Every structure is written in structure tokens, then in C-alpha cells.
Amino acid sequence: MASFLAAPRRPIATLPSTLGSVSLLASTDSNNAQPETLKIVQSTISKQLSIETSTVTPETKFADLGADSLDTVEIMMALEEQFGVSIGEGGAEDIATVQDAADLIEKLLASSA
What we know:
Residues 32-109 form the Carrier domain. Keywords: Fatty acid biosynthesis, Fatty acid metabolism, Lipid biosynthesis, Lipid metabolism, Phosphopantetheine, Phosphoprotein. It is a single chain. The chain is mostly helical. The protein has a domain at 39-111: Non-ribosomal Peptide Synthetase Peptidyl Carrier Protein, Chain A. 40% of the residues lie in helices and 0% in strands. It contains three helices and no strands. It has helices at 35-49, 69-83, 98-112. Helix 1 (35-49) packs across helix 2 (69-83). The protein is globular, with a radius of gyration of 21 Å.
């Protein structure tokens, strides 16, 4: 009688190669933020950059607002304080637009509830 442990090993299941790479993090471009969250994010960004709130639209990129990397860090810190959440060191890496920031804040608020 052959031992079970001596049997050749075969994978239980394989994933189709058409899947490509899969991100474990949720996309931030899904526009999940509540309108009130977006409005507060826009206001916070305009205050941090000393610009008119009307120029801060959801689709606006931070770079288009004249924000450099230090400005972006300061914006993230202000948003953390404003909403009482912790974005973390790597949390803001994929944020390019105002909507991205609002969506991330909304996601963090939902996960802390």
C-alpha cells in the first residue's frame, strides 16, 4: 500500500493566467465619498494652499493646484486632523486628485466605524 505522503504533489487549483496582477487595496477612484466629505476635503485643501475653493474640483490634481510633495503631506496631515483618522505613511501614495483624497477619507471613516 502506497503512502499518502509519498504521492506526487499537484496543485489543488490554479488561477487563469488572464487575471494578471491583482491589487489587494481597493481602488480610490470609485467616487465613494459623501458630498459633505468632498466639500470638507475641498475646503481643507483650499485653505492649505491659500487658493479659492471654487478652483478645487473633484477631478483636480494636486499638482495642477501647485502643490508640491511637502504641500501634499501637509494637506494629508490637515485632513487627518479634520476627520480624526490616520492615513498612515503609505496611505496617500495613490492619491492624485481631490476625489481620491475624499474617497480615501470616506474609506477610513467607514473602516473605523
